[in-house]
Design goal:
The complex is a heterodimer of chains A (185) and B (306). By secondary structure, chain A is mainly α. Chain A is 68% helix and 0% strand. Chain A has helices at residues 11-19, 24-35, 38-54, 65-76, 78-82, 86-96, 113-122, 125-136, 141-148, 152-176, 181-184. The chains are: A mainly alpha (185), B alpha+beta (306).
Chain lengths: 185, 306
C-alpha cells in the first residue's frame, strides 16, 4: 500500500540476502543430487529458504551458513530420505565390495564429464550422498554425520566404500575404452 | 605390498588416503602418512591419483548442467521470499497496531515521499516519458504473426522498460551484470559496454549511458541496459531462451508496440534481444539493427570463453 510492504529493508532481510541467498546455487545442486529431479529440487530449495528466513534470527553470524541451511534442507527432506530404504541398499552393496585391497587401481582422470557423472549416478544412494557431501561439497565428516543423522563412524565407512566404488566405476569406463594405464600403472 | 615401517604400511595408507585429502586425520597420523609416501613411490603415485580424481569429481559435479540452478527460478525465489518476508514483518496491520496516530501520520508522509521519489528517478525525471497504455498487453494485431510465445516476451520486455527504465517499480533488487555473469550467464558480462560503445560509434554523443543491471520482471530475468538517445529513454534487453523453445535465430524485426512504445527484436541461438523505446518505429528499429552484429559477436565470444 505504501511501498513498505513491497520493499522491506529490515536488518534480517538484509543479512539473509547477504549471507544466505548467495548459497542458493549450492543448495540447489545439493538438493538436485538428493532428489534427482529438477521440480522436486526447486520445491525443496524454496521450502528450505523459506524456513531458513523464518529462523534466521537464530542463525549465529559468522558460522557456516551453507552448512546451516543444508541441515535445514535435510530436515525438510527427512520424510523422503526415510522412504529411500537406504539400509537395504547399503547391505546389498557392501556385500559386493571386496573388503580391503592392498593397492588400488589408479583411475584415468582424462575421462570426459559425462562418464564421471554416469559413475556418480551409478553409486547407490547412501554412498553417493556421503561422497558428494564430503568430496564435492566439502562438508566435514562431522557435518555429514549431522546432515544424514548417522554416526561419524558410519560416515567414514560409507565414504571409504563409496569412494572405492566410484573409483571402480571410473576404472571400468577407462577399461571399456581401452585405456592402457588403468591396469598397468 | 608390505612395507618395512612400524608406523604405516600400504594397506593402512589406502585406508587413510581419502581422510588425509579431506584433512580429517590427526596431526600424528598425517605425519605417519607423509613419512610413508616419502619412502613408497607406489603410494605416492596413488596419493596423486586420489587427489586428481577428487579434484575432477568436484569440478565435474559442480559444473554439471543438470544440477545448475535455473536463474529464473533463483530470481523468482528471491522475489517471493522478499515479498513474503515483507508482508510478515512490515505489513500495514502490524504497523498500525504498533503506532499511535501521530506516528502513523508520520509513516504515511514518509512513505508517500519515498514512493514519489522512487518513481521519479533523477536520471530520467526531466525527460518526457511516453504515455503508457493502461493495458499491459500488446495488441494482438501488432504481434507480426509470431505467436503467443513472442507476444509474452514482448510484454515482459515492455513491462521491464516501463517499470525499470521509465520508473523504478521493481519488487526485486537488481544485481550487477558482473554478478549475473558469474552466477547465470557469462554473456551478461560487459554487455553494457558492447551496447553503449556500438551505439556511440554509430551515433556519437547523441547516446548517453544511464544505467545497466540484471533485473527481474514478471518472473523473467533480463540483462538491461538503459541509454538516452535523442532525449528518449531506450532499453536494450537480453534474456535467455527457455529450454526447448521453438523460436529460431531471427534477424532484427519490428515486434510490436504498446501505446507509444515500440519493440524491435532479434534472437541468437540462446538469447532473445529487444530494443524498447518511444522513438519512431524506424528509429527504434535502426538502433536494434545497429546493435545486432556486435551483440551477436559478444554472445558468441562469451560462449566460446565458457
Amino acid at each position: 500500500m505504501f511501498g513498505l510492504k513491497r520493499k522491506p529493508t529490515n536488518e534480517i532481510w538484509e543479512a539473509f540476502e547477504g549471507e544466505a541467498l548467495p548459497h542458493m546455487p549450492d543448495l540447489y545442486r545439493i538438493a538436485y543430487w538428493l532428489v534427482r529431479n529438477k521440480e522436486e529440487a526447486e520445491d525443496l530449495v524454496q521450502e528450505t529458504l523459506s524456513q531458513a528466513l523464518r529462523s534466521f534470527h537464530r542463525y549465529e553470524r559468522g558460522t557456516n551458513c551453507r552448512a546451516w541451511m543444508t541441515r535445514i534442507m535435510y530436515n525438510v527432506n527427512g520424510k523422503r530420505i526415510r522412504k529411500l530404504s537406504r539400509l537395504r541398499l547399503v547391505e546389498d552393496t557392501e556385500e559386493m565390495i571386496a573388503e580391503t585391497i592392498a593397492f588400488e587401481q589408479p583411475v584415468n582422470t582424462s575421462l570426459n564429464d559425462e562418464e564421471v557423472i554416469a559413475a556418480v549416478k551409478k553409486l547407490p544412494e547412501a554412498f553417493r550422498q556421503v561422497v558428494l557431501l564430503a568430496d564435492v561439497e566439502e562438508f566435514s565428516y562431522r557435518e555429514v554425520a549431522e546432515l544424514l543423522q548417522i554416526p561419524a563412524g558410519t560416515v567414514m565407512s560409507r565414504l571409504h566404500r563409496g569412494r572405492k566404488l566410484l573409483r571402480m566405476e571410473l576404472a571400468g569406463f577407462a577399461r571399456s575404452f581401452g585405456l592402457k594405464n588403468v591396469n598397468e600403472i | 605390498m608390505k612395507f618395512e615401517m612400524d608406523e604405516m604400511n600400504c594397506k593402512e595408507f589406502n585406508e587413510l588416503v581419502d581422510s588425509y585429502l579431506h584433512n580429517e586425520l590427526l596431526v600424528e597420523t598425517n605425519h605417519s602418512l607423509l613419512r610413508h609416501i616419502e619412502l613408497c613411490p607406489g603410494c605416492r603415485e596413488s596419493l596423486a591419483n586420489h587427489r586428481e580424481v577428487r579434484s575432477r569429481l568436484q569440478s565435474v559435479v559442480r559444473n554439471a548442467d543438470e544440477s545448475r540452478i535455473d536463474p529464473q527460478f533463483e530470481i523468482r525465489v528471491r522475489s517471493s521470499l522478499r515479498a513474503d518476508h515483507g508482508s510478515r514483518k512490515v505489513g500495514f496491520g502490524s504497523f498500525a497496531r504498533g503506532l499511535g496516530f501521530a506516528g502513523l501520520v508520520s509513516v504515511v508522509l514518509v512513505a508517500i515521499a519515498f514512493f514519489t521519489l522512487d518513481t521519479k528517478s533523477p536520471e530520467i525525471a526531466h525527460l518526457n516519458p511516453p504515455a503508457i497504455n493502461a493495458s499491459n498487453a500488446l495488441p494482438a494485431s501488432t504481434d507480426s504473426g509470431i505467436g503467443p510465445v513472442y507476444a509474452n516476451l514482448n510484454k515482459d520486455a515492455v513491462d521491464d522498460h516501463k517499470n525499470c527504465a521509465l520508473t523504478h517499480n521493481l519488487e526485486t533488487k537488481p544485481i550487477t551484470l558482473g554478478d549475473a555473469a558469474v552466477r547465470f550467464e557469462p554473456a551478461n558480462r560487459d554487455i553494457d559496454k558492447t551496447v553503449v560503445e556500438t551505439l556511440r560509434k554509430e551515433f556519437g554523443t547523441k547516446v548517453e549511458f544511464i544505467k545497466a543491471h540484471y533485473c527481474l520482471i514478471n518472473g523473467r530475468a533480463f540483462a538491461h541496459v538503459v541509454v538516452r538517445f535523442e532525449e528518449r529513454v531506450v532499453s536494450f534487453l537480453m534474456t535467455r531462451k527457455e529450454q526447448n523453445t521453438s523460436i529460431s535465430n531471427r534477424r532484427v524485426q519490428q515486434c510490436g508496440y504498446d501505446g507509444d512504445l515500440k519493440v524491435a527484436c532479434f534472437d541468437t541461438q540462446t538469447f532473445h534481444l529487444f530494443v524498447v523505446s518511444d522513438l519512431e518505429a524506424e528509429s527504434n528499429l535502426k538502433l536494434a539493427e545497429t546493435l545486432e552484429g556486435s551483440v551477436r559477436e559478444h554472445i558468441a565470444e562469451a560462449g566460446a570463453r565458457v
